[in-house]
Amino acid sequence: MPAEPALRSTPLNSVHRSLKAKMVDFGGWDMPVQYSGIIDEHNAVRTAVGVFDVSHMGELEIHGPEAAKLTDYVTTNAVHKLKTGQAHYSGLLYEHGGFVDDILVHKVADDHYFLCVNASNQDKDFEHIRSLKEEHKFDAVVENNGDRYAQIAIQGPKGMATLQKLTPVDLSAIKYYWFTDGEVAGTPARIAHTGYTGEDGFEIYVAPSDAARIWHLVMDAGSEFGIKPCGLGARNTLRLEAKMALYGHEIDASISPLEADLGWIVKLDKGDFVGREALVKQKEAGLGRKLIGFEMCARGIGRDGYEVFLDGAPAGWVTSGSPSPTLNKNIGLCYLPLDESVPGKNIQIMIRNQPVDAVTVETPFYKRAK
Amino acid sequence: MYPENYRYTKEHEWVLADGGTGTVGITDHAQQELGDIVYVDLPKVGSHVEAGKSLGSVESVKAVSDIYSPVTGEVVEINQTLADAPESLNSDPHGAAWLVKIKLDSAEEIQNLMSSADYLSYIGAEK
Q1: Which pLDDT score is estimated for A2?
Q2: B38 vs A352: CB contact, 8 Å cut-off?
Q3: Are A205 and A60 in contact (CB under 8 A)?
Q4: What pLDDT is stored for residue A299 in this prediction?
């Protein structure tokens, strides 16, 4: 029998173990799925503050005179419109219009872009961008720097108040989806006003050797608010309520951003980019399917991979489904034929060979009060 | 933590035999692994279940898992309180949150199951 490849671990692995987190193999990474419980952690983020180790996420950096041109060419959003210190969500596509990955692009300088990418995709993404750079001879350098950064997310209405205790940077001056290079706990940190929870919050990038010390300081700073360490389980329920896509579920190589209801990250008028032609054709021909939210009407949870029926015939599939701790309903996302992918459709989800009633709904399921 | 008068399965169920009836539940280890439980599906009273075959399922926020019957026999009672309070499986899996009572076809069958000491070393080894 071939030996199982060793799981990769983050600089906070021993912290999770000392907190008695339940650990799982997440795309080859040994990660905490929960500490006190998914619902408890979820509620902490919605009502106060939670802290997540997201150091498994990859970081790719693009430097050089043509860093902007290369980044614009390999992603769907308008990189040339980013200001220094600004970030945006974007797609990294194949020529055929399917996702290599979904990513955050940060403009550090005119000649330096910082990409936060999914953990299990980082090597694939790096190879993808590097080979396009070679092929089109962009004057830029692509670096696969996941090992150089630990990433900690501090999320929730008390996220800013928690992190503010640890940094001289005025966090209230950082607009949503902007970032600042400053200090946290006396050590250099990239402080981004971003997140994957649908709640206000920050994601900080620090040196791996500082991660455990900063984690403990964040926990201390948030203790007055009832801060909780949060695992991948709560991260999933939080992002689902906010209808944020998860690679491998809503999106993958067979799905385009238009189908995934992510047309807002596709800037067809920005000039040529990888996948543009396929997306233009798809738009002309009309989409075959589109992502839509649903709520269960009867007892049951429509989960990832379950079939969706419309008028008694198979019509699509569920990409993510879960109880929603905030809304106290069972919610999910599914693909349906374009014409049917509108709110208010009665559908059935096959839950262990039983059709269970559900209805399509507007998304996001949860939107925070601003 | 794991009562000595219970017997345990490798699939993390327990059974307490009392006369000809066995009370069945899931173990504390099982509820910890599952996390927050949101649904419990149980068989109908009067149905016949077989040791090692599915008895129903428990669903947590994360996933659905089958429950396997530790014993063979007829379901004579189900725990109605679990329909409205599935979370009690997280708080009292060895007590108030029992699942079903089964009239045992054979009183000897439970001898094949693990003692609490064996089960403890089994879950120790599994980790």
Answers
A1: 56
A2: no
A3: no
A4: 92
Supply the pTM of this predicted model.
0.95
Domain of A345: which CATH number?
2.40.30.110
Q: Touching check for A300 and chain B: CB below 8 Å?
A: yes
Per-domain boundaries in chain B: 7-107+114-120
Residue B36 distance to chain A (closest CA, Å): 6
For the stretch B60-71, pLDDT in tens is 999 999 999 999
CATH tag, B7-107+114-120: 2.40.50.100
Verify that A66 and A200 share a domain, yes or no.
no
Question: Tens digits of per-residue pLDDT, A212-262?
Answer: 999 999 999 999 999 999 999 999 999 999 999 999 999 999 999 999 999
Average pLDDT over every residue of A279-283: 97
Chain A contacts of B63, Cβ < 8 Å? 303
Say which CATH number the domain at A219 has. Answer: 3.30.1360.120
Residues A139 and A76 in one domain: yes
Same domain, A48 and A166: yes
The predicted model gives A276-290 an average pLDDT of: 97
Look-up: residue for tokens 């981004």?
A: A192
Mean pLDDT (whole number) for A317-342: 97
First-to-final CA distance of chain A: 55
* Residue carrying structure tokens 């169920």: B13
pLDDT value at residue B125: 65
* Alpha helices for chain A (secondary structure H): 13-18, 38-47, 67-74, 122-136, 159-164, 211-222, 232-241, 276-285
Amino acid identity, position A135 = E
Rg (CA), chain A: 21
CB B35 within 8 A of CB A37: yes
Confidence of residue A369 (pLDDT cuts 50, 70, 90): confident
Q: Are A114 and A71 in contact (CB under 8 A)?
A: no
Residue A355, strand partner residues: A350
Q: Which residues of A touch B64 (CB under 8 A)?
A: 301, 303, 352
Closest CA to A75 of A288, A256, A266, A331: A266
Query: A137 touching B, CB under 8 A?
Result: no
Q: Are residues A125 and A205 in the same domain?
A: no
Residue A132 belongs to some domain of the structure: yes
Distance from CA of A171 to the nearest CA of B (A): 34
Which residues in chain B come in under a pLDDT of 50? 127
Domain that holds residue A39: 13-55+149-241
Domain boundary among A147, A174, A198: A147
The whole-number average pLDDT for the span A122-131 is 98
